[in-house]
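Long-time lurker, first post. I've been practising inverse folding by hand and with some scripts of my own, and I keep getting stuck on stretches where the structure tokens seem ambiguous. Below is the full token string for one chain I'm working on. Before anyone asks, I'm not after the true native sequence, just a reasonable design that respects the backbone. If someone could post their per-position residues I'd love to compare against what I wrote down in my notebook.
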């Protein structure tokens, strides 16, 4: 059954039979999987716009950061003319993410109004992150560790017509009972929103397995 917690052996060439399937990936990745089966739904998923994002992770010895990185993090308004959208003080939010004598922050750069930022070099992105962090917190110490991660698809954008697009996707998926979609592309981009979507999706899967009803795919 699809609700088993045990790992399922999955040789690349072997098909898997399941009573229900939940696809929780990005809409554009899901669209590739569904293209041969429901091209209309696939087309609607590909039409969900996204905002590219670069993430700069930085770390310092905690003795060098003082009280600069206290709290959850900071958001930077566009009126401040900064390219960083926000900075998460990761070592505070996720204890254990780094050693106790280290401090870590993650800067998110780009977004819908700065879609080419993720194409900058690692060094240029680090310079932006450091300058914006210093402006927001006063911390100007050079991190002794950094990594850059680029997300070309990035953040799904719920533009005008998004709900109509979801309705069209659901209508197309009516030909595939037992298939459910969940994730940031549909009804909430934040981690909290994705967690909130998880239980209702599991309930719909259970109802389908019990009596075959599938009132909502997304």
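-- Answer (accepted) --
I ran through it position by position. Result:
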């Amino acid at each position: 059954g699809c609700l088993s917690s045990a790992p399922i052996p999955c040789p690349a060439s072997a098909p898997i039979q399941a009573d229900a399937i939940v696809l929780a990936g990005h809409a554009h990745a899901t669209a590739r999987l569904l293209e041969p089966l429901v091209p209309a739904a696939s087309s609607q998923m590909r039409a969900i716009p996204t905002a590219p994002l670069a993430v700069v992770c930085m770390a310092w010895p905690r003795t060098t950061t003082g009280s600069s990185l206290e709290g959850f993090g900071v958001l930077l308004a566009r009126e401040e003319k900064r390219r960083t959208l926000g900075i998460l003080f990761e070592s505070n939010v996720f204890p254990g993410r780094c050693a106790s004598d280290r401090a870590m922050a993650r800067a998110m750069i780009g977004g819908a109004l700065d879609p080419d930022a993720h194409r900058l070099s690692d060094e240029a992105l680090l310079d932006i992150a450091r300058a914006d962090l210093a402006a927001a917190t006063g911390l100007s110490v050079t991190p002794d560790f950094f990594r850059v991660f680029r997300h070309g698809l990035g953040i799904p954008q719920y533009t005008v017509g998004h709900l109509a697009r979801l309705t069209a996707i659901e209508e197309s998926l009516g030909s595939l009972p037992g298939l459910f979609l969940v994730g940031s592309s549909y009804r909430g981009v934040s981690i909290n929103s994705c967690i909130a979507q998880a239980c209702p999706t599991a309930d719909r899967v259970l109802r389908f397995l019990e009596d075959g009803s599938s009132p909502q795919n997304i």
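A couple of notes from the structure itself: Helices lie at 27-34, 39-46, 90-93, 122-137, 162-173, 191-211. Residues 1-6 have pLDDT under 50 and may be disordered. Happy to go over any region you disagree with.
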